[in-house]
Amino acid sequence: MSFYTPYWVKRIAIASAFLCTATTTLAIDSLRISLDDILAKSLINSTYVEEAHLQLKEKKIQVAQRKMELLPEVSVRASASYATNMPVYDHGLFNKPSQHEVIHYLYDSGADFYLNLYNGHRDRMNIQSAKLEQEMATIDWKASQAKIKMDVCNLYLDLLRCYLHRQLIVTDIHDQKEQLKEVKDRYTAGVVLHSDVLRIELELSKRELLLIQIGNDIQAANRQLQLITGIEEEIVPIARPLDKIRVDYDETIKAAKEQAFIMQKSEQEVQLKKLAVKQAKANYLPKVGLTGTFTFANPQVFLYPYNDSWYNLGIVGLKLNIPVSAIYLNRNVVRAAQVIYDKEEVKHHHEAEILENKLLQAYLDYKLAKEEQTVRLKNVDLAKENARIIKNRYFKSAALVTDLLDADMQYLQTLFEVESSRIAVQKHYYFIEFLKGTI
């Protein structure tokens, strides 16, 4: 007769315990939520993402401002002043001067106009530079979203692992209590020693303490997720299997070079530094602008003879500025911009190497986690069979209680390791998606 609980019976018990646990949790103001739903909530409530979004809005406004700078400059002016008589010392400084009558009240009003026609395309390059900065802000915003998703994924999977471990320990405690009852009955019949009963009770107490620790871990992970997502209820995760998902290394590298946030931002940095070289070279080029002035004033002192009548005058012309001193003042500016551009290109290639190394390590960790999961699934069957044999031998007085407890603990440990390996596979998968920029 086998005294060991069949494997399928244990699985049914685990499922029942989980159902009861979930039902009890839902009854005390909790929320069962999938990973996709909690990710959506985290993006809405994240201050980190909101900060990046405001930075993006700021860059958009800067682009609009740079475009507005292409419009002509227009200003209006007005002035009113009083002039005193002008003494003329026609007989020397120490003699009484004669008074030269002047027009005392002076009024001037008008408008000035300037339209840039050509300045080495500096304005358009400034717009292009602002657009590149806007694109970088967009990448930062998407990267901040990906970072929040990665953090939430890790917390959510940690919480799921705690719930799975709690299911296992609850089921195991139930089995240990049943086993303790059998041992007490045999102790009453004089078959086993009292020390065996005490050892099993001690192990049962340790499992109950472990259950309390897992409950504390659940509360801690819940609190962190609640702060990020803004959810007030207790979060109960829903398991999402990834058994059908496969990761191809070559495709991962190819996708990462195009979509990884660090590569996208590095490419924009290279383009920005390349544009800075063009801007530095533009300092050699002349500036041409259309100017205009309209004046409505009194008195008329623009042309001789002067008079105290009101007049208006409009002047339109071209203004040319050739920066001759730039030939020697701008030389090192261009050289420095070129060096910065070359350095940014080297940095871009270095970033690609770093990303590839990270992806290789992440892929190897993912493969290792998959292999560990396969091995640990086999270990469950081995540990289950070992526990069954030891239990039969113990109740036939052919094994010690320490052997029985060790076998039970090994079986529980293998169940823990299986669930942990499944969570580890998912964590490595999401980390690869994060590095690729596709999470």
Tell me what the structure shows.
By secondary structure, the protein is of the alpha+beta class. Helices cover 67% and strands 14% of the residues. The protein has helices at residues 7-27, 35-45, 47-68, 122-188, 194-229, 249-259, 261-281, 326-329, 331-395, 401-436, and strands spanning 30-33, 73-82, 86-88, 98-100, 105-118, 234-237, 287-298, 311-321. Helix 4 runs antiparallel to helix 10.
Order the strands across the largest sheet as they lie in space.
Answer: 2-5-7-8
In whole angstroms, the N-to-C terminal distance is 53 Å
* Alpha plus pi helix count: 10
Strand content: 5-15%
Number of strand elements: 8
CATH level-two architecture of the largest domain: Up-down Bundle
Helix content: 55-70%
Q: Would you identify the regions where 5 or more consecutive residues have pLDDT less than 50?
A: 1-27
- CATH fold topology of the largest domain: Outer membrane efflux proteins (OEP)
The H-and-E topology, N to C, reads as: HEHHEEEEHHEHHEEHHH
Radius of gyration over all CA atoms, rounded: 41 Å
**How many structurally independent domains?**
2
What class, by secondary structure content? Answer: alpha+beta
GO molecular function: efflux transmembrane transporter activity; porin activity
Protein name: Outer membrane protein TolC
Main location: membrane
GO cellular component, one term: cell outer membrane
